[in-house]
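Lecture notes, unit on binding sites. The following record was shown on slide 14. It pairs a sequence with phosphoric acid mono(formamide)ester.
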Amino acid sequence: MNSKLKGKHFLTCEDWSKEELDLVFETSFDLKDKFKKEIPTRILPDKTLFMIFFEQSTRTRNSMEAGMTQLGGHAHDLTEDKMQLSHGESAKDTAIILSRMGHGIASRNCFYGIGRKYLQEMAKYSTRPVMSLQDDVYHPFQGIADLMTIFEYFGKNTKNLKVTISWAYADTHSKPLSVPQSQILLFPRYGIDVTVAHPKEFPLNKNIVNKAFENAKVGGGSLRFTNDMDEAFEGAQIVIPKNWGGFGYYDVDEYLKNESECKKEMKSNLEKYKDWICDDHRIKLADRNVKLMHALPADRGHEVTNEIIDDPNISIVYDEAENRLHTAKAIMSLTM
Ligand code: CP
């Protein structure tokens, strides 16, 4: 593909203009259409993508790997233990070497205070595009798949669409802040009115919130915060109930210095909010045509009830997950 975006890193949608993102959506819809019609899209023949996962993944790993195959190339599925990273090899050396052997590098590193910096270090030295498969601050691939799904259900004019992103209880693991942070930054750029609900001990990062307010001003959307989940659901056209860890309650340096104490406190704070669930009572507060979105994996019975996530009139989570494939292919086709 002859693209002016060739070689551009994809670490956050914040580095991409609205025009560039619009091209991503146009490409994603075109690739989705061709996928459905089984029209081949060998845009990256014989190209290699190196994917390095420091954490588990179902959607991200498989959308990228299947995507590369469908584009005519190949993706290496790498983990820290398969590489000399486990013996301390630097991000710089890894990036220089992999970028000499292939055409793109993608990595997931969500360690709080570490992941984003790791990806930035790789991007500094890689001569090929570096893509974030989620870090501690951003999950750009999730953001664009979410917005593509919103366009499919509500049309491309999303001005004043009411979207509620709510913290929800989960007992699996402390999930990164990167999904809600990517959403609050991106959605208001497209005119969306975003409400965020969370208990006071589970805030998002202050700098990200400030930037999201600026984005809303430019994009014509809005952003507001509440500590009341019921109130946040009232009249919402889309609800996104999702757990995130209490990382934003701490300064990064403070967290890294006292990690085990912070984790203990996060866990005890978490137990106070078991009633933060998307259930029948709350969904009835929302718009009568409300749609449920979730990046998945969902903590069923805690974040959202089975009845709601399995209700085909409400839940669009599988479309959202499928769109990870089409948007991943768009980013790779345009940058690699
Ligand atoms: N939503 C998402 O990133 O899913 P995985 O963790 O399975 O990749």
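Take-home: The radius of gyration is 19 Å.
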